[in-house]
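Work Package 3 (structural annotation) set out to generate three-dimensional models for the target panel prioritized at the project kickoff. During this period the team completed the workflow that converts sequence records into discrete structure tokens, so that structures can be stored uniformly alongside our sequence database. As a representative example, we reproduce one entry of 417 residues exactly as it appears in the project archive.
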Amino acid sequence: MLSFLSKQTVQEGAQKFRFLAAFILGGFVLSSVKIWTTRRMRYRSLNGKTRTLLVMLFSLIPTDIEDHQLMYERSVLARWTILGYELSILEARGQMDTEDGRDYLEALNVLRADEWEMMTEGDRMTTVWMWINRKAKRLQMSGYIDNHDLASISQCVTYMRDNGMNLVATLYEDNPLPYVYICAMLVNINLLIQTIADGLQWGIWWNDSNGAIYIQLRMYIAIFMQVAYTIIFARLFDLCSALHNPFGPRDFLDLPHNAVGSQLRKLAKQMAMGELPSTMNKQISKYHDSGKSMVVGDEEDNLQTSLRRMNKRLAGLKKDTSTSLFNTKSTLKELKAASGITSSKSKIRLRKVTNKILLGRALGKKSEPKTFVGLDPISESKSKTISILDTMKTPTRSNTTEIKDTAGKIKKSKSLV
């Protein structure tokens, strides 16, 4: 009787704690996932703001290969932009002021001379944003950019600072410590009571079966359920620490910062060099608008592009035609072997058919698939219908002529420009 009361009491307590722990733990898990998602979205926003700052810097600051000082200033601004970006990531990882963080920046080749010592400890990325604004102000005073350009660059720097300072934001985003402690306590108490209740139940089964419970399937199912229940509840609580900071080195869970940062460094370096397409500075003598496309500008460039496309298409058509002729010969040989032609009359007929098809293919004439009857000399009543032209798909002579005429017109127009 005592064991029954103990078992019943423990099971009732386990049921109450199970409900309470599930209720509290559900909200805890949702909050942890929301924080994780918010921080990843903020990282994406930081990447976008970094690209925006690079675009603004190197589209507003002029490029002059002969002006070595100007090109040096452009390269410094590109490096400082990536330096501030990487410092924001190090701050989210808790390594901004450590020697490991400094070694990381030096390995990326974004840290020079005494820059590390000149940064304010605890707020290094803000120091870098100030440097960028100061450099832009000097360029404005030197006449390279105007006041509006300076204001645009300063606004982009401000956006970068706002995003970089709030990547983790533990001050107002983390779950309160009392809430975390209560969740941990409820999970542990629930697992303890549930384990005791299952142990009492297994003891009763063992006593009622005189020890034969271990040869019954229900005992092993109960053990599996107990282990799975414990693991699931424990891992749900551990989800808080796993999702707390997505800026770590875990490949399967954290952000792929190595790949993203490498792409940004490549972009900054290429933009700082100031390489632009030839159409950026091309001077044209005639304005052309065909009215049929979005291509408006130099007619000569358009004609050259069209001519290259036509030549490429003609080469492809010649290749397809030769391939089709080879396939036609192979098909006719197979038909001859399959029909078992032995009489000279049938051979002459097949030879005429072959010559006619090859001549038509060479001239590019369109013709409907024809039906050839009576190729079997043994039994004329057993006619065979063979569609040969179905297997031959080549451009017609009219299409080829049209393409050549178009190419000739393009060459003629090019000579007139």
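The two ends are 109 Å apart (CA to CA).
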